[in-house]
Design brief:
By secondary structure, this protein is an alpha+beta fold. Helices cover 34% and strands 31% of the residues. The chain has four helices and six strands; from the N terminus they run ααββαββββα. It has helices spanning 2-21, 26-29, 58-69, 129-141, and strands at 39-43, 46-53, 74-79, 83-89, 96-105, 112-120. Strand 5 and strand 6 (112-120) form a beta hairpin. The model has no long low-confidence stretch (mean pLDDT 86).
Length: 143
């Protein structure tokens, strides 16, 4: 009986270590070209929000960055001139959810388009967590 306990404990510790330490290259989470119209696009494991902006989007990215970093257990993984990547971990298990925010210029206009994607790293369903998080952050960022 004691051996069973130690085996279960070892499996639990191993899973925890894998969840928290598994490599997740930033390139895997970068947003490619997204040709969706402005709106909300829920999926089984995440959520995409597309918003039109009246300017070049730099102010939006700064406001979005501030709002994301105010969230508990969230850190910036990478940032560039037109894209940023964040990881937010769940409280107990530490499951990572990745959020990418990118701004691109809309051809032929002085407007830009923001594409924000939140998705889970492990599993299939996020139970709407990414949608709630992104809607909160977008409201704080003013879009």
């Amino acid at each position: 009986m004691m051996m069973f306990f130690w085996v279960v404990l070892a499996i639990f510790v191993g899973l925890q270590a894998y969840i928290r330490l598994a490599p997740a290259p930033a390139g895997r989470w970068e947003l490619g070209a997204v040709d969706k119209a402005p709106g909300d696009y829920p999926s089984e494991g995440g959520f995409i929000a597309v918003r039109d902006l009246d300017n070049d989007g730099s102010a939006f990215l700064q406001n979005f960055d501030t709002a994301m970093l105010e969230l508990p257990r969230t850190e910036r993984v990478e940032t560039g001139s037109d894209q940023a990547l964040y990881v937010t971990r769940s409280g107990f298990w530490g499951f990572p959810d990745y959020t990418s925010a990118a701004v691109t210029q809309v051809e032929g206009t002085d407007h830009s388009r923001a594409v924000i994607s939140g998705r889970l790293r492990f599993g299939r369903s996020d139970l709407g967590v990414n949608r709630k998080r992104l809607q909160k952050v977008l409201a704080q960022a003013g879009v």
